[in-house]
Amino acid sequence: MTLHLDRTSTDPPLHATGITIRGDSAAADVLGALLHQSGATVSRFPDAGGEPAHADIGGTELAIGWAGPVREVVDEASAQAICGPMHVHGRSSGSPRGLGLDYCGTAAGVIGGTGLLAAVLDGRKSVSTSVAQAALLTVSQYLAAAGAPEAEPAETGPGGPPFRSSDGVLFEVEALDPAVWQAFWHALGVPGRAIGAGWRPFQFRYATASAPLPPELQAATAERTFAELTTLAQRSGMSICELYAHRRAESGAPAFELYTLDSHRPVDRVRGALPLNGLTVLEAGRRVQAPLAAHLLRLLGADVVRIEPPGGDPLRGMPPMCGGISARWLALNRGKSAVEIDIKDTGDRDRLRDLIRTADVFLHNWAPGTAERLGLGAHDLVAVNPALVFVYTSGWAGRLADAPLGTDFMAQARTGLGELLRPADEPPAPSLMTLLDVLGGLLGAFSTVAALLQRERTGRAIRCESSLLAAAELLGLRAKGRPEPGFRRPVLGDGGWHLGRVPVTDDLASIVTDPRFADAVALDADRCPEVLTPWGFR
């Protein structure tokens, strides 16, 4: 992986910096890739004393452990089993299932790298995190919903995409508008009752990791060739994507991109207890990717202000609720303030520009081209604030000409993750756990801190971009083909599900009262489960 800068700079944030990384794990590999892309000269050694990774950059050290404050986690498989990913990934199958890739270790590598750059930015001596804490963070939305005082909605159960055509092609579909959903299935002759019954579980699969769809939908696609289905999708506006075979990322494919802009203003801030204290982040995010990135920046000490539409973010009211606010929404947005701005209104866009004058970061995940069309692109806003870090967490980073909608499950399908996540004795299928939205959010936080470090060293404004595509490539960094049959598949026995001798968590709500998690998960003021910060700084 390489760092791409524009013509104004050839000095990435860690240019000419030597870093030693010890460890032979997904966390160490991902950490090494990200720091190399940040300009560092990385020296790798396999032994990290039995832990996933250790890094030393000048006078700052990073330690990534397996367990951290969570007892009994000793490797990737036990992290998935104990901390919840195995349960969430298995919801669409009806029982816990292990992920075929080292997802928790990959997340820990990104989180560790973010903490390391934040420590360097603030002059800290050391930072620590763990694979277990990363695993908990990846299921924080599901944990919040499961532990909420109000019961979770019942639209859960096995089943769901991908679909199969008459000529055997497995594929995903995506629609963000119920009218598009209705038009596509109506064209296939599906009864209106089944179309209507399928929309809600399909729409909420992002929140529940399951999609028990009416059988009429699968039956309808099985009667048409993929070419016919593609034509109907184009006519109705449905996005459709065949499940691709996995290919390793091309050499030089960036996990994130930083562009140093031709703008300069001295930066000063009041430092505090956390590395990003004194910095202000404006977040115009929706769903998971950008809100999670901003959430991590808040955990690092930044003041985060959400830009919400008139009437507020509608996801605030998504059940189950805690203290009158959505539990899932709280998992991503707890502790942020908010202002309501209609970005389609000229006067409100001026209000946004006024806020940007004194902000350090503007972060968004709007549809491609939206910011530029509204006069809110990087060059527009840097004219207002010459020291701004402009962050875009995108779907495809403009790298695929024929890209489908830039959403999690479409990205899983397009990048071939479906065949890597499940063992060879199961059909390929993307996970209904939002793997890439979450990993994309973590990568967005990393790229933001890298950009802040770049700004600190150059005094210039920075535009940076991360993507779901890059998240998928990081996750597949160590892939060596499909996992063997039965890989990481738990067995039901006396006392519940087990993976070998490791008990599998099959009720996320139990994590809140389990003493193993007492220093990693807590209840907030609204009695909503909260995954605590994954970093410890010194």
- In total, the number of strands is 23
Low-confidence parts, pLDDT < 50 over ≥5 residues? Answer: 1-9
Distance between the termini: 30 Å
Helix content: 25-40%
Q: Which strand order does the major sheet show?
A: 9-17-16-15-10-11-14
User: Strand count, sense and closure of the main sheet?
Assistant: 7 strands, mixed
* Beta content: 15-25%
Number of helical segments? 20
* Mean of residue pLDDT values: 93
Radius of gyration (CA) equals 22 Å
Give me the secondary-structure category. Answer: alpha/beta
**Apparent shape:** globular
List the helices and strands and how they pair.
Layout: E1 18-22, H1 26-37, E2 41-45, E3 53-57, E4 60-65, H2 76-83, H3 85-90, H4 103-122, E5 126-130, H5 131-138, H6 140-146, E6 163-164, E7 170-174, H7 178-187, H8 192-203, H9 205-208, H10 215-221, H11 226-236, E8 239-242, E9 256-264, E10 280-284, H12 289-299, E11 303-308, E12 321-322, E13 325-326, H13 327-333, E14 337-340, H14 346-356, E15 361-364, H15 370-373, H16 378-382, E16 389-394, H17 408-414, H18 417-420, H19 435-458, E17 460-467, H20 468-475, E18 491-493, E19 496-499, E20 502-503, E21 521-523, E22 529-531, E23 536-537
Parallel strand pairs: 1-2, 4-5, 10-11, 10-15, 11-14, 15-16, 16-17
Antiparallel strand pairs: 1-3, 3-4, 5-23, 6-7, 7-8, 9-17, 12-13, 18-19, 19-20, 21-22
Helix pairs in contact: 1-4, 2-5, 4-5, 4-19, 6-13, 7-8, 7-11, 12-19, 19-20
